[in-house]
Amino acid sequence: MRSLMTELPDEVVQAILHHLPPRSTAALQQTCRRFVNIANEPLLWKIYCQRDFRWWDERHGIKSLLQDATFTGWRDLYHDRQFGARTTRRAINKIVTEETGRLASLKTILDVGYDAKDTLLDLFRTAPSSEDQLALKYWSHAALGCLHRLLAVGEWVRLSAAEAPIPIDRAIAGFDLFILEERTEGDMDDIFARLDSYAASVRSAYPNIDDMTPRQKAIAITAHLQENQWVGIQGDRHYHSLDHMFLGVALFSENRNSIPLISAIIFSHVACHFGLRAAPCSFPFHVYAVVSPPVGQDLDGNPLPEYIRDHDGPIASEETLMYMDPFRSLEPLSPDDLRAQLNFISPSTSAARVEGFLTPAKPRSLMIRAANNIMASGTHYPGEPAFPVDRNLATYAALFSLVTMTDASGTRRHNLTFLAKHFLEFFELDVHLFERHMLPMTGNYMESYRYHEVIQERKDADHVSPPPKPRSDPKNSLVQFKVGQVFRHRRLRYVAVIYGWDPDCRMQEYWITTNQVDRLPNGRHQPFYNAIVDDQSTRYVAEENVVVLQPSEITEDLLNAFPLKLGKWFKRYDHETGTFVSNVRAEYPDD
């Protein structure tokens, strides 16, 4: 019996296939010779690529391909993406189910590149339906964080090594990759798309902007950004709140707040869409945007005399240079205005240094300034930002920026020490990031061998299971509680989950003395438990302070308070037993 499908025109069949999954299209072409060509139509597979994959690794050049009408390799490209997705999914499953080789599996994901993000986010979102929901959610989150950071630092390393000037907006956008986590908006592509939309909004508000003078354009752009509250800090938010330090947060958060450096970058990007030359200048205690007209014009659009035409950079005169302060003002400032401010702030500043403050800042110096702003934020304002930003991730980003952007060997060496400490304490999975980008920077340092040793130790340990602690061993017979039990601290009252234990205190003598362990009734000669607390900290708790909670005492609110990191040690929570199901069986086989 003939299928009605065979009687349909090719165009109708293709329209139907647009709404079917690619596997149905592949199956259809097996049924009839006529459908082979229809199912291989490049435009059909282009739609599948656009529909099924949002994030693309830069090696594909997807923006160029989408604009290239002659490109016909969409089906092959789709299969390449599917292969990357399968590779990523297998690697995550291996990480979840096997306790060794995790760094190697993580490298497999990182080698897939930004293509892996689609799969990692899918695994993160669907984790609650999995048997290993806690582990799957944690490891997909951890892998995505490693991927974001590898891309950001790779961008900085490339930019710092390039002979051409660093695009400051792209460099600053790298900070956002560190803190992006599972948010679906705010990566580099999103940031530039949003900035370009601001330019489109300006053009819509001022249809005749191309007829304006350069001075009028700068004022109009500033007015539009301020009217829409896209620059500056609104309401009563503290200037130093951590969320104000990031370009992507300023563009995608609800409040859109930003410090002067970020506001100046936003203005400068938009201004360049309208033929202006604009860039931030690193003024003391503030950042302005230096604005100069197109070559050969003054700020009022008049042609410049031949002898003062500007071919090598803006000339600091009233006719060719002005300054905008999108953070707090609509009025342009002249070079003399800023010189007067500098004379008031620091009368002894040399003429050369004054001119340095008045010209576009070197991108490296702005990156260092941005990093220092992030580092200082917690000192000036320790409160919670209106838009959630993880402080450890923000500090990590700042330290990486200081290491990659500083030229002075002594300064880089100092910052590298703090970066390594942060890595070892909070981001031990970033072995491949350090190996690829940080180790090459240590080559001239005496302690270079030690950095290499630390990385190699981490890689070696990844292939070795920890020594098992069977309860049949007489020395473990006194350990009363198990991995996965939820308890309340007898004295401090916090709630935590046990993820490891020792038959007696194994901490160093300094820690034992500092925490007055020997003053406990049972002292150091009692079991001690590794525990993760609902405030995200980890503790080492004496058995006499452990009060195990019954299943009826463990509420959903209590469970939801535990951090994502719980999945590093556990698969899921068992409501019936009131315990978390262990995923560290190699070390604790009987728990």
Which terms summarize this structure?
alpha+beta; 9% strand; SH3 type barrels; 591 residues; globular; 3-stranded antiparallel beta sheet; 5-stranded antiparallel beta sheet; 23 helices
Task: Provide a descriptive summary of the structure in words.
By secondary structure, this protein is of the alpha+beta class. Among the domains are: 181-367, no CATH class; 474-582, Hemimethylated DNA-binding domain (SH3 type barrels, Roll), CATH 2.30.30.390. The protein contains 23 helices and ten strands. Strands 7-6-5-4-8 form a five-stranded antiparallel sheet, with no helix packed on it. Strand 1 (277-283) and strand 2 (286-292) form a beta hairpin. Helix 6 packs across helix 8. The mean pLDDT is 91.
Number of strands: 10
Mean of residue pLDDT? 91
Widest sheet: strand order?
Answer: 7-6-5-4-8
Helix content: 40-55%
Instruction: Name the beta content range.
Output: 5-15%
Name the poorly predicted regions. none
Most strands sheet = 5 strands, antiparallel
Distance between the termini: 62 Å
Shape category? globular
Structural class, by secondary structure, is alpha+beta
Radius of gyration: 29 Å
What is the helix tally? Answer: 23
Domain F-box: 2-48
Organism: Capronia epimyces CBS 606.96
InterPro entries: F-box-like_dom_sf, F-box_dom, Hemimethylated_DNA-bd_dom, Hemimethylated_DNA-bd_sf, SirB1_N
GO molecular function: DNA binding
